[in-house]
Fold each of these.
Amino acid sequence: MKSLQHNRAIQGTDQNLIQQNIQDFGSNKERLAMLQNSNEITHTVVSGDSYWAIAQQYSVSVETVQAANNWKEIIHPGDVITFSTTGVIPQTEVQPQEETSEEYSVALGRELAAASLAETAGRTKSTGRCYFYVANAVDKVIERFLYGGHAYMAADQLAAKKDLFIEVPATSLSSLPAGAIVVWGKGNSKSGHISISQGDGTETSDFRGRQMLSHYGGGAARVFLPKGR
């Protein structure tokens, strides 16, 4: 009789262990799912955002963000982009550095983009005065230093202002951050071209249009990002 009771006790213990293992397995599955989901980012686009800026914010590649948004050239405030990252996800939203001495300033870039947009006065066609209107925006936000009658001349002037701008490779032009200044070389044209990125795949100068990815004159592009003042 004692042996029978002992065997039943053992069986009861085994059943409890089995049940606990099942519960643990379920909990582990839930924890695994939570860990996997924790690597998923959902970002709502705000004014001044760009693929470049979003990628920098979450430490992923520009291509990761573009692919998650079906490779659309232009993003708009209110767009929702969901993508995965293998890095450590911060518990709170990472705020971009507003002003630094050696890196792109998000705040200054947005200010410059807004000033340039105002210079277009709603125009969607060129007046042939891209340099004039870009220089006006730079004058208002940063300081007056751009001169000359041709857009390509701005490149060396911007490069000389190392305390105000940082030159970066002219890659991924369609995903430049707000306030990036793009200067196209003269090439076979008379003046080249200059514009300020709006951070959404469009550029502004004397008008607003899609970000130029190549220039008819064949000149190369140089890109300058505003730094903290």
Amino acid sequence: MTILSNGHQWKFSEFLNNKNYSFDKQQILNTLSEKEIDDAYSSISKWDGYAPTPLISLNKLSKELNLKNIYYKDESKRFNLKSFKALGGAYAVEKVTKGNKDIVVATATAGNHGRSVAWGARRLGLKCKIFISEFVSDARGQAMADLGADVIKVKGNYEKSLIECIKQSTENNWQIVQDVAWRDYMQVPTYTMAGYTVMMKEITDQIHNEKMSHIILQAGVGGMAGAMIAGIAKYLNNIPSTIVVEPDSAACVLESIKTGKIEKIDIKKRV
């Protein structure tokens, strides 16, 4: 545990050095191509209200930890959504609907992705259905409702909300805009990930191509973290050490690295 001068504490419960894979730029860009990344930036940068979000220098923290620079990418300012996932879902909505105003979009979410999908649907004048588990707070559900979405709460965990989203979308011919992939459902999550790479484009412009030694990313499903890895392959000349951080109650990336295959984690509500 580390205790900072302001009294804040931080610690990690487990750390794993991923020795199963090395950074293969070409392999990464075969998964999320340079064209897909370029297309995302070209589209998103033309949206009304678009502006690069701040890259904040954490001077006091870097001094205390004896590091040259620590930067924080403040995504809370993106389109006033107060969400670090504002880019991906909205971009995927634009790509899959292709200007068709009659399409209804739907997604299952714990909050951040759904907020982007709801905002993207409102931006294009589309109806939107959001499925959340019973464990998602009322405040998060209301934030998506305030963006014009119909919010449906489902008994059970996130996976149950996703199953219900797929079921109702199939029955009603709604277009699912999800940030997680499964067999025969790969393109939409790819669009979502491409949207996230705009962050890395902005960061490289903001640091004027200064070399970064480490990049720390959040993971839930893992799409944002994976997209940023693709952004690193696309925009950076050096290869920084990348650290993925996730809650110990939902450490699916950690467990997947351990076994070398996709693992599911049962998330239980915590008081």
Amino acid sequence: MFIGLLLVSAILLLRIGGLALRTAAGGRTTITHAVALARMEAVGKLVTSETGLRDIVVYQNTRLGSTKRSLVVVTGKALVGIDLKHRATVDIMEDARRIRFTIPRAHLIGIDITSLKTYDESRGLWNWFQPADRDEIYGQARDQLRAAANDMAVLQHAEQSARDLLTALFATDGYTVDVVFTPFVQQPAD
């Protein structure tokens, strides 16, 4: 009984002492938000397909004979569309009542990870999880979702969606709409 009372007293003293030290040392938590804007530029991208994806990431790292493992289920979205800023043209043939769009082929615009849920994680004796490991898991998850999106034929779906959208928007008053796709060329970064 004496040991129990001593243990409870020690815990209370540590709690009160910790609170007093944090308050005396200015231990108040503050939250700040800073946004750095490097550059703004006009975006001419038409997202014509958004596909929900889910995959499993198995992460394993061995160092000094000690292995850490993690099993993570990642959920995200693949955004697929057309870059209208590069090589997109419109020809209107009034006498034939025909509109011809020449646009680049669809490509993967981005991968948005909406959740990462860890189901199993074990660290090695000498190999603990570090922030760099979490970054590696996030990068691996993004790569796996990108590969899954490419395997699902989302590019063809995005091109058909673009064709349907442009036809619905411009095939009024008896016009015929033709949509021609040219090969997508990745533009170099500035």
Amino acid sequence: MGWSKSRLIASWIVVPLMVAWSLGVLARKPVAAGQNAASQDHPEFPAGDGREAVIRLCAKCHSPNIILASGQDRKGWENTITKMVHLGATGTDEDFTDIADYLTANFPASAVKKIFVNTATDKQIAEILEISIDDAKALIAYREKINGFKSLEEMKQAPGADPKKIDAKKDRLVFGKAAPQPPN
């Protein structure tokens, strides 16, 4: 994957600033012996080449949850990376290639529709969980009361929730907030 000369030049200017910022962020939490900060911060990402680059570069601007819900083929991930570079993401060509390899291998395109449970509408929740609109509205009311679901287990504890239905659809549920859509 080729990256334009202007992107490379821009990365020479911004990379030192981002590295200094990253070191400060990574230093905020003690890390157990033999464990790196990336694996400590994001256990939901499988081990593999490129994982650290994904967490280091992508998590600067948005929640990694957007990746969990956005399976794509190689071309789709390359287009997403190119878009992120245009929006200011910085890294080396090797970083971006590693990211594309990792995401393609671990987050492929899927026919399974996913939703962000903390931003989904009652209709989306009802459709995905195959529950009534009233039950979905009750989930949303509880979600708002607790300021968002942080986990599958927390969602299953909502009053009136059906843990079996939630478990059955867990591959369609993404926690955290969706990344805001950048202006076109």
